[in-house]
């Protein structure tokens, strides 16, 4: 007896001498979906309700016990779809928080604009009155009287010698005097590589972006651990800030919040 649902389907299909294309014609399901079922690759299947329909049709064509098939599906596919639903729920919560922040920012901008309008309306008449008042003209200066020049010539004092400024070190020299940053303890010195380790103590969804690459998300169960590498920095979002241990280049980080708290835009760089 096969252990997984995919092996169960594959053995039954091969025992009947059918190819994936033959099974696809009988079930009217695309071959890539049937292949994903046999490989237990639920990420390539659509939503859970459609995946269950594929499994039921495939079992009927191969003459398998539907009750046993669905037991195997719940053991493997059920866990995958539960994690997917949890990830979607956390993403919706993040989107809702972002929407509320934008609304609050718009309200603040509107209040500031309204205050400026009121201030302009209150001070406008005063400015108009001040501009309508005649400006006082300054009295004409009295003509300056010239004194007769002295007959004895004046000797101007010699200027005192000005000391030359001391030459200062150039910016390049100052920068050369700084020592390079030492690597953290427990990490092999490599200035071109950053290492991020995340270990779950509670069930937690994590979203990571290394440098300027695409965002990657993962759902971790207690005891599971993942590692990423980067050249410049990491940007994190934690669905359960108190449920993870984070190590950056071998040095513990955080904690960034309590259990159950969502924390966004954590940046780790050299």
Q: Could you list some keywords that capture this structure?
A:
four-stranded antiparallel sheet; 434 Repressor (Amino-terminal Domain); 43% helix; elongated; 6 helices; 8 strands; 270 residues; alpha+beta
Describe the protein's architecture and organization.
The protein has helices spanning 5-15, 20-27, 31-38, 48-62, 66-132, 171-177, and strands at 194-200, 204-210, 215-220, 225-230, 233-238, 244-248, 251-253, 263-269. Among the domains are: 5-79, Orthogonal Bundle (434 Repressor (Amino-terminal Domain)); 194-269. A 4-stranded antiparallel sheet has the order 4-1-6-7, with no helix packed on it. Strands 3-2-5-8 form a 4-stranded antiparallel sheet, covered by helices on one side. α4 (48-62) packs antiparallel against α5 (66-132). By secondary structure, it is α+β, with helices and mostly antiparallel strands.
